[in-house]
Amino acid sequence: MSKLGVYIIGARGNVGATVILGALAIGSGRAAATGMVTSGPEFRGLAMAGLQDLVLGGCDVSAVALSDKAVEIGQSRIVPLDLARELKAELALVDRRIATVEGFKYGSLPRGGYLAELARVEERLARFRTDHGLDRLVVVNLCSTEPHFAETADFDTPEALLAALAKAPAGFCTGTLITALAALRQGCAYINFTPSQGSELPALRKIARDSKLPHAGKDGKTGETLLKTVLGPMFLARNLKVLSWVGNNFLGNNDGAVLDAPANKDSKIRQKDAALREMLGGDSFVRTDIQYVPSLGDWKTAWDLIHFEGFLGTQMTFQFTWQGCDSALAAPLVLDLVRLVDVAWRSGESGLLPQLSPFFKKPLDGHTHDFAQQMAGLMQWVDQLRHAKLPVR
Ligand SMILES: NC(=O)c1ccc[n+]([C@@H]2O[C@H](COP(=O)([O-])OP(=O)(O)OC[C@H]3O[C@@H](n4cnc5c(N)ncnc54)[C@H](O)[C@@H]3O)[C@@H](O)[C@H]2O)c1
Q1: Taking a C-beta distance cutoff of 8 angstroms, is the pair 239, 280 a contact?
Q2: What is the CATH number of the domain that holds 305?
Q3: What is the pLDDT of residues 17-67, one digit of tens each?
Q4: Are 361 and 301 in a shared domain?
Q5: Residues pairing with 5 in the sheet
Q6: What residue spans of 44-113 are helical by DSSP H?
Q7: Which of 325, 351, 374 is the last residue of a domain?
Q8: pLDDT (tens digit, 9 = 90+) per residue, 114-145?
């Protein structure tokens, strides 16, 4: 049986730890796969990897033991605390496959420069693959959101990018760009679950195409944006004119603290606003904000107000409040993405996978933000993959 590795950048974060605990719990039959799209009946007959077969690992700048992190998220009610305690030994095993790394903050140069960092990341990925005898490795970016950097012609081709990296000053790019580049250069599939710039840049797309590697992104669609892409098309379908759609997100976890920095927040809001703006067109007033409210922890609260106009100009208002557990919403989607990217890869698909657009706030190469249309496209594709007659794993 071929062996699939999953290398998580940010493996000891809230989402990373929830993904790992979830895979261990479901894979060992201790928990149901509720929330995982690929566990639904429509996916039956698709030769996806079982969660028990995944070789999980990755890296993080944090050195906290994964089993302690699991207890922490258990105490915060993100995952059941008893599961976190029960799986202590299994978590410790995965923790041995997670490297504690230096990384670098945007605006500073990595030790020895960008190319030295690229070499370090590539070496880690290559070692992970050989140490565990893997046939395929999917790299998943779950690390803290990074600021948006200026995209210049340096990012257009692999050659230009490598030449620029050799002499670029601090602030040229982020660690996410370096890990995405390393992943593709090492022959790994790549998933960007964060709003940071990764494999979407032209140079990286080209490497993926030339090396026949699938990749997908970006920024997981888990809460408020999911609702927007369900409700927005409803207003359009009924020819109700959205005058204003304003949303405020209150977030208390570490992601919220990171997003409190203006440059990081800008990166996230770009994604959150884009979906609505693109669906509604330019006439609606669209505004989204994120505020850090420490006491809420992982329970992100979104409050949205939609002011709209109906027949003969009559104005009405719709409001909703969504209180979701961010990591519990995100983790199953990460597992879905890994399984679907892997099936696509084994059936010979490569390059950006726009069919995965229902999973993302900013679906790269996706043609629509409309969730129903996105799901229809996904299911059509799944049907094709099912008939690709892959070996059952
Ligand atoms: N939870 C959701 O619903 C959701 C939805 C969409 C996107 N995201 C994105 O997923 C990412 C993870 O979210 P989270 O709640 O787990 O955040 P988190 O802060 O709990 O976890 C991020 C992890 O990344 C690590 N990290 C930071 N810099 C690193 C580096 N250079 N190399 C390796 N590791 C590094 C941190 O130490 C931390 O453990 C964020 O970018 C977030 O915006 C989350």
Answers
A1: no
A2: 3.30.360.10
A3: 999 999 999 999 999 999 999 999 999 999 999 999 999 999 999 999 999
A4: no
A5: 55, 137
A6: 66-75, 81-86, 88-95
A7: 325
A8: 999 999 999 999 999 999 999 999 999 999 99
Last residue of a domain, one of 272, 306, 325: 325
Whether residues 190 and 310 share a domain: the answer is no
120 and 176 fall within a common domain: yes
> Which structural domain range is residue 10 located in?
4-220+328-386
Ligand 1 pocket, 298 CB below 6 A? no
Q: How far, in Å, from the CA of 240 to the mean position of ligand 1?
A: 37
The number of angstroms, rounded, from the C-alpha of 293 to the middle of its chain's C-alpha atoms is 23
Residue 124 Cβ inside 6 Å of ligand 1? The answer reads: no
- Burial status of residue 1 (CB atoms within 10 A of its CB: 0-12, 13-18, 19 or more): exposed
Does ligand 1 lie within 6 Å of residue 242's CB atom? no
Mean pLDDT of the chain: 94
268 C-alpha to ligand 1 centroid (Å): 12
Whether residues 298 and 266 fall in one domain: yes
Q: Is the CB of 122 under 6 A from ligand 1?
A: no
